[in-house]
## 1
Amino acid sequence: MKKGHLSKSPIFLCLTILACGKSNNGPSIPVSPKSTITVSANDSLLNYSVNLVYLQDVNTTHTTLISAQYPDTSTRKGSLGIRIIGDTTGRFSGDSLLVTYTDGKGNVFYNTKDNANFVQIDKFPKTYNGVVSGGFSFSVSGSAGTVRFSKGSIVAIYQK
């Protein structure tokens, strides 16, 4: 019986290919969390992609600011600022909620203290880049009229 070289064996070839495969155990690059605030505003759908959460003391009141904007490179204009009293999960309405909306034309709108207006915060990790999530529904009014925000969803990134 004639013996061939081991390197010509099909089994040896398969084992060599498997041993030379790419390893997935290298260093991983951290993925930045994605944020979005989406809401129906009257007859339009707004989708803000730059959404950050900040803890701020306003005078002696501890508040949370949820800031929603378009990227600087966007042709869309406008912003949404939601400020709640405190820094925890729960439902915020009435005097615990202040909303400022600026539309694409520069008109500014504010919410009323109506208890039908609310923001629900479901998740609020207080770690840098933690994802804050929840939902909202409210009306805002200004000199240009009233805008009704409904079925809003929040996925925003905690900063401090």
## 2
Amino acid sequence: MSSGQVLVLIIVTALTSSLCTLALGLVVFQRWLRPRLETRLTMIAETLEARVRAGAGAAGQELLEPLRAQVRGGVEEAAIELLPRIRAELAAGFREAAEESLPAFREEVRKGFAEAIASLATTEILGRTAGKVVRTGSSLVETGLSLLRATRPSARDDDESP
């Protein structure tokens, strides 16, 4: 064999060996190494996520109270600024509503009292008065009859006991 053929044979053998090594490495990587790496990567990602959440939660808790204080202060300032204007507007609105509805309210109250007095005067008062007159009259008649009977108290007690 000539030296050129030996050189080509060496190169082909080297390339074939390299390709076989590469193919064998790819198979080993796909079958054994990749699943282990993915499992490990998943565990690392979960750990990182837990640490980030814990750190973010702690940072959020640290910032929450100052944020609440700032919001509370801002709301109080806004309320202090707006409260007099709101009070004035509410008072003006109530006055306007009262002035608009006061005549109608007065008229309704007058009508109500007039109806109540009229209904009481015609039915209830007459019924009560008639009852009192009848009771008073019967009481007077009974008293008059007992005076006319002129019996002795001892005789009256004997008559009532049986």
